[in-house]
Amino acid sequence: MIRRIEASRQIDARPAVIHGVIADYRDGHRQIVPPKAFLWLAVDKGGIGAGTEIRFAMRVLGKVRVSRGLVTEPEPGRTIVETYPDTGDVTTFTVDPRRNGAAALVTIATDLHVPDGIMGRIQGYLAERVLRPLYDEELERLAGEAEGRRRYDPVPQGPAA
């Protein structure tokens, strides 16, 4: 069963600027991920948009999990997709222009694979409680970066030696 978790926010910056921050996994993306959950984000291949391969560590409910992601852009300039081969889960970043290109509605959505039945409902509920606030914070950080109001320190580029 698939459980979709998403959050959206209007950001007062040009869509190309917003997309550029999201697509830049070497710098921009590392600044917008919430450091309370993301311990590090490493680029293994590429670094800008489609073809990028990443690894990252997240602390969720007290446990650290390292994941691998493959980045595609099914709609260049509008949609960035991270696919996680180990789980089959997918996170999509969508940048929809608003106000004649002066702003954009940005949506972060993750499709999680959860088991059918009560365990899946419990996992989906917990995932929503954890991920939704993280997405809200990521969108706030993205707005600060793209609107030029705030620059955040990026999470580290890889695990500590």
Q: Output the strand order for the largest sheet.
A: 1-7-6-5-4-3-2
Total of helices: 3
Helix content: 25-40%
CATH class: Alpha Beta
**Whole-Å distance between the termini?**
38 Å
Q: How are helices and strands ordered from N to C?
A: EHHEEEEEEH
Radius of gyration: 15 Å
**pLDDT below 50 for ≥5 consecutive residues: which ranges?**
none
Q: How much β-strand is present in the residues?
A: 35-45%
CATH architecture annotation name: 2-Layer Sandwich
Shape: globular
Largest sheet: 7 strands, antiparallel
CATH superfamily heading: START domain
What is the average of the pLDDT values?
95
Structural class computed from helices and strand pairing = alpha+beta
What do we call the CATH topology? Alpha-D-Glucose-1,6-Bisphosphate, Chain A, domain 4
Q: What's the total count of β strands?
A: 7
Total domain units: 1
Summarize the structure in words.
The chain is of the alpha+beta class and 161 residues long. It has one domain (2-146): START domain (Alpha-D-Glucose-1,6-Bisphosphate, Chain A, domain 4, 2-Layer Sandwich), CATH 3.30.530.20. Helix content is 27%, strand content 41%. Strand 6 (89-98) and strand 7 (103-113) form a beta hairpin. It is globular. The N and C termini lie far apart (38 Å). The mean pLDDT is 95.
